[in-house]
Write a structure and sequence with these properties.
- By secondary structure, the chain is mostly beta strands.
- It folds into four domains: 36-302, 6 Propeller (Neuraminidase); 318-430, Immunoglobulin-like (Sandwich), CATH 2.60.40.1120; 442-528, Carboxypeptidase-like, regulatory domain (Immunoglobulin-like), CATH 2.60.40.1120; 540-653, 60s Ribosomal Protein L30, Chain: A (2-Layer Sandwich), CATH 3.30.1330.
- 6% of the residues lie in helices and 38% in strands.
- Strands 29-30-43-46-44-45 form a six-stranded mixed beta sheet. Strands 14, 15, 16, 17 and 18 form a five-stranded antiparallel beta sheet that branches. Strands 27, 28, 31, 33 and 34 form a five-stranded antiparallel beta sheet that branches.
- The longest helix has 21 residues, at 590-610.
- The protein is elongated, with a radius of gyration of 29 Å.
C-alpha cells in the first residue's frame, strides 16, 4: 500500500500508540476475517455500504493501461452482496456509466441510496487533463440514482485541476461531506476537510484542524450515523504505516481529540478504510497485514456488542512503558523488533499460527510441568509494534488491566516470548545468543513404535523446528526405531513424526534435563480417532499464573492465560482427563483455606467449561494451605508476591495417554 497509493499519499512510518478519549470501548471478542471470495492477488480496499452489500476499490491488474504517475494499474469500483453471516457473492462491476479507463474510487453513497460521491481522475471528454507538471489530478464527482444506472455525473465545485481532492464521506443527513486533499494551506501531505450543503450549494472547504491533521497524511474518512468520524493517518503516533483513528465533533463543531484503535483493527502494517454498521457491532476495512493474497485485502470484523462506549464509560487508559533490550552481558541492543500482542480466551489475538504452548519441566519439582508460550515461526518484521533505538530503548503503551504476549526478536539472537500483565511490563528484555552444538545441550532420544509398542518403526521421519535452532533438523529412525540429537536447552522445539501407513503426529516440547527420551506410539492412519497425547498419566502441570486476589475465589479478569493454554491442550487431545487441585497461601485458618481452595478449583473448572471443555473430563480437589512452596508458613512475615507464589492450581493427568508416553530422564 505504501507504494500503491503514491498518487495520493507519501507514507511516513511512525511507532507508538495514541490517546484514548473514550469514543470506542473495544472488547476482547472482536473477530477479524478476510473476505476470501473478494480478495485476490491484486489490491482491494476502501469498502462502502450500499444496498445489501459493499462497494469497494480494486486495481485492474489485467489492464495494460497504467497510471504514468505510479506505473501501476488504474482503480475500479466493484460491488458484492453480503449475506447475514458475512459471506460474499462474486463481485460485479459497480457501474458501467461511471467507469472509465482511468481511476474510479473510493466512494460513498448517501443514506437513502440516491446520491453517489466518488473519486475519479480529472477528465474531459474521456481523456485525462494534465496540470502544470503534466500530472492528472484526482477529483470528487457526484451522481444521482437513475432508472438503470448512476446519472447526472458532475464535478464538485471545490475541486481543482492543480491539486488532489479525494475520499469522500457523506454524513447521514447528507448535509456534511468530509474529504482528503493536498490543497495549498494544509498542514502536510493530505489533510481532512469539511464542506456543508445548504439549498444545494456547497460551502468552501474548512480544515478539521491540528488535532486531526498532521504533517503526514490523513485519508479514508468515514462518518458513522451517530457522528463518529473514522479515518486513517500516518502522521499521528501509531503502530506503523497507516493506522485507524476515531474522533467526533464537540458541541461547537470542533474536533479536539482523537482515539487510536487497538488490535485487531490496527497492526504494524497499513490499516485503512474502516466502516462501521449503525449498531456498532460489525463492519469492514482493508489492511496489508500478513498474510495477504496480494497487496491490500478486505476484512470483515464483528463484535458481540457495540464497539462504542456507553454513556459515562471511558475507553481504556494506556500506560506508557519503557523497556530496555540487552544481551546477556548487559549491552544495549538496537533494531530489535518488539511485539505486544493482546491475549484473549483463544490466546494471542494476532499471529496465533506463529506461537504455541510448550510443557516445560519445573526445576524445583521432578515430574511437574508448566505451560509456556513460545514463538515457533518468526513474525513478519514489518508487523512489529516498535523497534529499539541505539540505547536499546523501546517505548510502548499498555492497558494495565489487559494481558499481553510480549515478544522480541533480532538476527543472531534467540527470540523472547513472555505472557505479561499490562501493569507488570518488564523494564528489561534479555536476548541470548543461540547455543551451538559445541555448547552444553540436551541429548534427546526419540523411539518410534507402532501402536502396540511391539514393532519399532524403521525409517520414520522426524522434523524438528524452532526459532532457536540454527536451521530445521530432519532425522530418520534406525532399525531400532531410534533417532537422537543434542538440542539446545530451554529451546521451544516443534517435533513432527511421519511414517508411511501411519498417522502423522506433531507436538511442541522444551528440552530441560541432562538427557531426555521420548517414546512415540503411532496408530495406523485408518485407526486414528484423535491425535495421540504427549502427556503421560500422572503428569502434573503447575499453573502459576492463574491469579486470585487474597481471600477471593474468582479469577482476576485477564489472568487466565494458562487455563486458556490448558483448554487448547485438552481440545487437541480429547482423550485426556484431568484433576484440578488448588492451593492457597497460609493466611487464614486451615479450614477456611481448604474451603477457599475448593471454590478456586471450581472456578478453574467453570472457566475451562466456558472455553468448551466437557465438565465430565475434569475432577476438582483442594489442598488448601497444606503445601506451601516457600517459607511463608503461619506467622512468617512475607511480601504479597511471596504469598502469591503459593496460590496456584495444579493439573494432574488422570488417564493413560493415547498412543504416547513421555520420560524426561533416560532410564539406565
Amino acid at each position: 500500500m505504501k507504494h500503491i497509493f503514491t498518487y495520493i499519499i507519501c507514507l511516513i512510518a511512525a511507532i507508538g500508540y495514541g490517546q484514548s478519549p473514550g469514543y470506542v470501548c473495544q472488547n476482547e471478542d472482536i473477530s477479524l476475517t478476510p473476505l476470501e471470495n473478494l480478495n485476490t492477488k491484486s489490491i482491494e480496499f476502501s469498502p462502502a455500504y450500499y444496498q445489501q452489500g459493499i462497494v469497494y476499490v480494486v486495481a485492474r491488474e489485467k489492464n495494460n493501461f497504467l497510471d504514468p504517475k505510479t506505473g501501476r494499474a488504474y482503480f475500479d469500483l466493484m460491488y458484492a452482496d453480503i449475506g447475514p453471516d458475512g459471506s460474499t457473492t462474486k463481485s460485479v462491476n459497480f457501474s458501467p456509466n461511471i467507469r472509465t479507463q482511468y481511476h474510479e474510487g473510493p466512494c460513498c453513497i448517501s443514506s437513502d441510496g440516491q446520491e453517489l460521491f466518488f473519486t475519479r481522475s480529472n477528465l474531459s471528454g474521456g481523456q485525462g487533463i494534465n496540470d502544470e507538471e503534466g500530472q492528472v489530478q484526482l477529483k470528487i464527482y457526484h451522481a444521482v440514482k437513475g432508472t438503470e444506472d448512476w446519472e447526472q455525473i458532475t464535478e464538485l465545485p471545490f475541486c481543482s485541476d492543480s491539486y488532489t481532492v479525494v475520499h469522500p464521506a457523506i454524513s447521514a443527513d447528507g448535509m456534511d461531506l468530509i474529504f482528503a486533499s493536498d490543497m495549498p494551506g494544509g498542514m502536510g501531505g493530505m489533510d481532512l476537510y469539511m464542506v456543508n450543503r445548504s439549498n444545494g450549494t456547497w460551502s468552501a472547504p474548512v480544515s478539521l484542524g491540528d488535532k486531526v491533521n498532521t504533517k503526514g497524511n490523513e485519508i479514508f474518512p468515514f462518518i458513522h450515523p451517530d457522528g463518529y468520524l473514522f479515518f486513517s493517518s500516518d502522521g499521528h503516533e501509531g503502530n506503523g504505516g497507516l493506522d485507524i483513528y476515531v474522533t467526533a465533533a464537540d458541541s461547537a463543531g470542533r474536533y479536539v481529540d482523537i482515539q487510536h484503535l487497538e488490535s485487531p483493527f490496527n497492526s504494524g502494517r497499513d490499516d485503512l478504510g474502516m466502516i462501521v454498521s449503525a449498531d456498532g457491532t460489525s463492519g469492514y476495512m482493508a489492511s496489508d497485514r500478513k498474510p495477504t493474497k496480494g497487496k491490500d485485502d478486505l476484512y470483515r470484523w464483528s463484535s458481540p456488542q457495540s464497539i462504542f462506549c456507553p454513556p459515562g464509560r471511558k475507553a481504556k487508559v494506556l500506560i506508557p512503558k519503557e523497556i530496555i533490550v540487552q544481551d546477556e552481558k548487559g549491552k544495549a541492543l538496537d533494531s530489535v523488533n518488539v511485539w505486544m500482542i493482546p491475549m484473549n480466551q483463544e490466546g494471542p489475538t494476532l499471529y496465533k499460527d506463529h506461537f504455541s504452548t510448550a510443557l516445560v519441566q519445573q526445576e524445583d519439582k521432578e515430574g511437574a510441568f508448566s505451560f509456556r508460550w513460545s514463538m515457533t515461526e518468526p513474525l513478519p518484521v514489518a508487523s512489529a509494534d516498535a523497534r529499539s533505538d541505539k540505547d536499546g530503548r523501546v517505548n510502548l503503551q499498555a492497558d494495565g488491566k489487559a494481558t499481553y504476549l510480549l515478544s522480541a526478536s533480532s538476527t543472531g539472537y534467540e527470540s523472547y516470548t513472555e505472557v505479561v500483565n499490562g501493569d507488570q511490563i518488564p523494564s528489561t528484555i534479555l536476548l541470548r545468543k543461540p547455543k551451538g552444538y559445541s555448547s552444553p545441550c540436551v541429548q534427546t532420544l526419540f523411539t518410534v513404535y507402532n501402536e502396540k509398542g511391539d514393532v519399532p518403526l524403521n525409517g520414520a521421519k522426524i522434523d524438528l523446528s524452532g526459532t532457536c535452532l540454527p536451521q530445521p533438523i530432519t532425522m530418520y529412525t534406525n532399525d531400532s526405531g531410534e533417532a537422537s540429537n543434542c538440542l539446545p536447552k530451554d529451546c521451544s522445539i516443534k517435533a513432527e513424526f511421519m511414517q508411511i501407513g501411519y498417522a502423522s503426529h506433531a507436538f511442541t516440547f522444551t528440552p530441560t534435563d541432562t538427557e531426555e527420551h521420548w517414546k512415540i506410539y503411532l496408530k495406523t492412519s485408518d485407526e486414528l480417532t484423535a491425535p495421540p497425547s504427549p502427556i503421560a498419566s500422572g503428569t502434573v502441570i503447575v499453573l502459576d499464573n492463574i491469579y486470585y486476589d487474597f481471600n477471593k475465589s474468582a479469577i482476576r479478569k485477564g489472568e487466565a492465560g494458562e487455563l486458556i493454554a490448558l483448554a487448547e491442550t485438552l481440545k487437541q487431545y480429547p482423550d485426556l482427563t484431568i484433576e484440578l487441585t488448588s492451593h492457597t497461601d497460609t493466611r487464614g485458618s486451615a479450614e477456611y483455606n481448604m474451603e477457599l481452595a475448593e471454590k478456586r478449583s471450581e472456578s478453574s473448572k467453570a472457566y475451562l467449561v466456558l472455553l468448551g471443555i466437557d465438565p465430565s473430563r475434569i475432577i476438582t480437589k483442594a489442598a488448601g494451605e497444606s503445601s506451601p512452596r516457600n517459607k511463608c508458613l503461619d506467622g512468617v512475615p512475607c511480601t504479597e508476591a511471596e504469598h502469591q507464589y503459593n496460590r496456584r492450581t495444579e493439573v494432574r493427568i488422570t488417564n493413560p495417554a493415547q498412543g504416547m508416553q513421555i520420560k524426561y530422564k533416560t532410564e539406565q
